[in-house]
Amino acid sequence: MSVVGRRAAFAITSGAPRLRRRHGYHHSCGDCGSPLFYLADEGDYVSIAPGSFDAPVEIVPLAHQFWPERLPWLALGDDLPKFPGNTLSHPDSRRRPLA
């Protein structure tokens, strides 16, 4: 699971993550090694691990990615869009209307 955000709005507020270069830039906690975020070689977005947020419970999913590759026991009862692989549409086209 990851949260997608705009690179320009993303900032590291503390610590010094470790960097691993593999099909982009994978950053992990410098102390424990937990995944934090990923930056692709191109594009305006960052993929952030929800556990790196102060309040991950406040994050609301908008879509499911890699749906055909999910574990066979995973059954979700939501009506969110489901995408094969890394084929998500642009994040701006997936915004939900405000209630």
Quickly count the helices.
Answer: 0
Major sheet strand order = 1-5-4-3-2
Number of domains: 2
Percent helix? under 10%
Q: For the terminal residues, how far apart are their CA atoms?
A: 25 Å
Report the mean per-residue pLDDT as an integer.
82
The sequence of SSEs as H and E is: EEEEE
- Rg value: 15 Å
Instruction: Report the sheet-strand fraction.
Output: 15-25%
Give the biggest sheet: 5 strands, antiparallel
Rough shape?
A: globular
Question: How many extended strands?
Answer: 5
List low-pLDDT spans. Answer: none
Overall SS class: mainly beta
Question: What does the model show?
Answer:
- It is a single chain.
- The protein is an all-beta fold and 99 residues long.
- It folds into two domains: 1-54, no CATH class; 60-99, no CATH class.
- It contains no helices and five strands.
- A five-stranded antiparallel sheet has the order 1-5-4-3-2, with no helix packed on it.
- A hairpin with a 3-residue loop joins strand 2 and strand 3.
- The protein starts with a strand and ends in a 51-residue tail after the last strand.
- 3% of the residues are buried.
- The mean pLDDT is 82.
